[in-house]
Amino acid sequence: MSDNQKTSSGEQWAVGMERVPLIHFDSGRVHVENFRNFRYECDGSHIENYETRSVAIDSLKTADFIVVPFAGQPDLAHTMMSFGTRDGQQMVVSVEARRRLNQKYGIIKGIFGAFQLMYAIADERDAIGLRTELRGDDVYLYRTSASAEQVQTLFKSVMARADKLSRKPERYNTITNNCLTNIRIHMNRIWPGLIPWNWRILINAHSDYLAYRLGLLESNESFESTREQANITERAKGNWHREDFSRQIRRPIALESLNPD
């Protein structure tokens, strides 16, 4: 077991948090070592798989914003980003509180620095399947209005921070250094003032509405209709084994078949 898989006191990390991603930049490509590609079943079992993934930066064209409301705490949520290439590959970045084995997440614990900050980088069937299959969460996926050039700039910023964290870890903070505040920091460093401070940054299950109001989401409909289309929970459930999972969860609701032949 590598040092990456143990805490400073020799304890093990929680499932899926054993290894932090290691980032390598090379001639217009990004290589992600310890890319997480787990599979989760509703009975609580999982198949562990870490691998190395590479992506050409100029092949990236889309960025999706993912919101996962907390069960029992509808005003709070976990947020992620999924970067897509022209040939349909997806790479999810999830900023998380890195927990020790059997350690539970807690809002108060997070305020007082009980967790390390982690940029998990994973396959969509992993990052979304963990929520829909194992945890039974609802998941909302929104296409952002970012251009391909903006997506590539944002991706490089995110990967650079993941690289820095692999060498110099930080403490997670529920209020100041969490999943959504880091997304906001990346966006505002590239485009200053793009996302102003708003109470929805803290009560982050409403961050999708903020993004909608700021014109950051690709939509010509009302927010209610946009959110309904963004709910991919039923399209994702039970489909983690499908090679075309990413395409399936993006099918318009009116055209979807939940159990296609």
Report on the architecture of this protein.
With about 260 residues, the chain is an alpha+beta fold. The chain has one domain. It is built from nine helices and ten strands. The strands form three sheets. The protein has a five-stranded antiparallel beta sheet. Strands 1-2-5 form a three-stranded antiparallel beta sheet. A hairpin with a 2-residue loop joins strand 6 and strand 7 (about 75-85). Helix 3 (about 150-165) crosses helix 4. The longest helix has 20 residues, at about 150-165. It is globular, with a radius of gyration of 17 Å. The relative contact order is 0.15. The model is unreliable at about 255-260 (pLDDT under 50).
Short structural description:
With 261 residues, the chain is of the alpha+beta class.
Supply the key terms.
261 residues; alpha+beta; 3-stranded antiparallel β-sheet; 10 strands; disordered C terminus
Topology:
Layout: E1 22-26, E2 29-36, E3 39-40, E4 46-47, E5 50-56, E6 60-70, E7 73-85, E8 90-98, H1 107-111, E9 116-122, H2 124-134, E10 140-143, H3 148-167, H4 179-190, H5 199-202, H6 207-213, H7 223-230, H8 233-236, H9 245-248
Antiparallel strand pairs: 1-2, 2-5, 3-4, 6-7, 6-10, 7-8, 8-9
